[in-house]
Amino acid sequence: MEFTKSITVAELLQVKRLNLELVCGKRYIHREITLGSVNRPGLALGGHLDNFRTHSVQVFGRGEQAFCQKENKSRLRANVTKMLEEGQVPCVIMSADLDPLPALRKACLSADVPVLKTTMESTAFVTEFSRFLDEKLAPVTHVHGVLVDVNGMGVLIRGESGIGKSECALELIKRGHILVADDVVEIQKSRGRYLLGSCPTMLKHYMEVRGLGILDVPLLFGVGSTLDETKIDMEVVLTFPSDKPLDRLGVEQKTTNILGVEIPSLGLPVTPGRNLAVLIEVASLNQRLKSQGIFSAKEFSQRILDKMKKGAGKPDATR
């Protein structure tokens, strides 16, 4: 299940690292911020609203302030009013400790948009604010599975209920790898187009293993046996044996899509005698080689094809 987070302007005012304070519009600080993008409304102040980001927080810096001071007051108020009426602008933020001009203040209040200001300069503020919004508002989904950091790579172990995901993760922890989440994995898409996995607060540091019940992993294996979050680099799907033919060479690189991000996916049949923990360890190392451009299965397959071509070109000695 995928859902989008939001944050209100009132909650934004509580974020100390942004150095924000309310200038006016206290009645409207319940407005919600749902987009992680920040906008500098340079062209919009001149009345050019094509491609204006109507649902983004609007940041006014020294450049916008200089334009507003030179612009006709009535024209400025009309342009700002039109700009704010285009969508649902959550708030306007003045950077560099600037005070909004009366025309800007009146236009914002008439559109029920609160005005804030920060002591930070525009570039520094937009960078820090964008990072904050990325952390808070990035798309999130929850999947059933186990997330383990194996050899520095985040491995998402999935499969049907009762197939042995937690038992496999338990063996990996015993072998020195690190648990991130068991049963429910919270996945967030970062702005850098990668997936970050973590554990819901209530389940953090706990595992449920059939026959053993609930286990406190740090108490059993030490504080270094758990991790709050990790980048998800690959998926391993545990499957029951079937009559379908398997890719014995591993030439085909399958992927899975989570929140619009493709990650490598590997299927491992669960049969008696197979040490799944060792197989997952090797799979993570092999995937690291693939990410470095070394694809052993394809190189082996190409070597066989080259050998066959050379053999086909030789004359038949029996003739």
Throw out a few tags for this protein:
17 strands, Udp-n-acetylmuramoylalanyl-d-glutamate--2,6- Diaminopimelate Ligase, Chain: A, domain 1, 2 domains, alpha/beta, five-stranded mixed barrel, Rossmann fold, 29% strand
The protein's oligomeric status is: single chain
Largest sheet composition: 5 strands, mixed, barrel
Instruction: Note the run of SSEs as H and E.
Output: EEHEEEHEHHEHEHEEHEEEEHEEEHH
CATH topology of the largest domain: Rossmann fold
Name the CATH superfamily classification of the largest domain. Answer: P-loop containing nucleotide triphosphate hydrolases
Name the helicity range.
25-40%
As residue ranges, the low-confidence spans are: none
Mean pLDDT: 88
Biggest sheet strand order reads: 9-10-15-12-11
Quote the distance from N terminus to C terminus.
Answer: 68 Å
Number of distinct beta strands:
17
Structural commentary:
The protein has helices at residues 9-12, 42-45, 62-70, 73-85, 102-110, 122-137, 165-174, 217-221, 276-291, 296-313, and strands spanning 2-3, 7-8, 20-24, 32-33, 38-39, 57-60, 92-94, 115-118, 140-150, 153-159, 178-189, 195-198, 206-209, 213-216, 229-239, 254-258, 261-269. It has 319 residues and is an alpha/beta fold. It folds into two domains: 2-137, HprK N-terminal domain-like (Udp-n-acetylmuramoylalanyl-d-glutamate--2,6- Diaminopimelate Ligase, Chain: A, domain 1), CATH 3.40.1390; 140-301, Rossmann fold. It has a five-stranded mixed barrel. It starts with a strand and ends in a 6-residue tail after the last helix.
